[in-house]
Amino acid sequence: MTSGTSGTHRGLTRFNTSDASTAQAELHEVCASSAWGAKLLAQRPFATVEALFEASDAATAELSDDDLAEAMAGHPPIGRPKPGDPTSSREQRGMAGASEELKAEMLERNLAYQDRFGHVFLICATGATGEQMLEALKARIANTPDQEREIVRTELGKINRIRLTRLAEEGDNA
Question: b/e for 99-132, b at 16 or more Cβ within 10 A?
Fold first, then answer.
């Protein structure tokens, strides 16, 4: 096993050599945008995790508004991870120990955000506390739709990198 983003990982090798439908399904677990997944799928094999990240970043930057909406539709609201989905539960861990008051305020503000922008509040929640996510939500609801779309694109890119890292490292500790 080689560590670091420049090394070769078992998961990356497996991803590079898997059949197209398997790789496409894995990419869909990372990001629900079919355009994003198709761009990455077409560029396989990736020599390094960093090359995979660069392709992901480029594909994320090129997402149309509809593609971005499709990507966001794959993310549950903060504080309400999809039942049985270990990825969203792990990523939203910061809400697990939040007070009932914070959870209630997050739900209320999530709904207000969705009313304003027409999609879920997307934030890279990994490592963030419930309080930090709530503060970000409070600050971002004042953005214009164009400002928010670019912030969402940036947050999606961060989430994709975290998920791609996990995909690339699967089996490294075996």
Answer: eeebbebbeebbeebeeebebbbbbbbeebebee
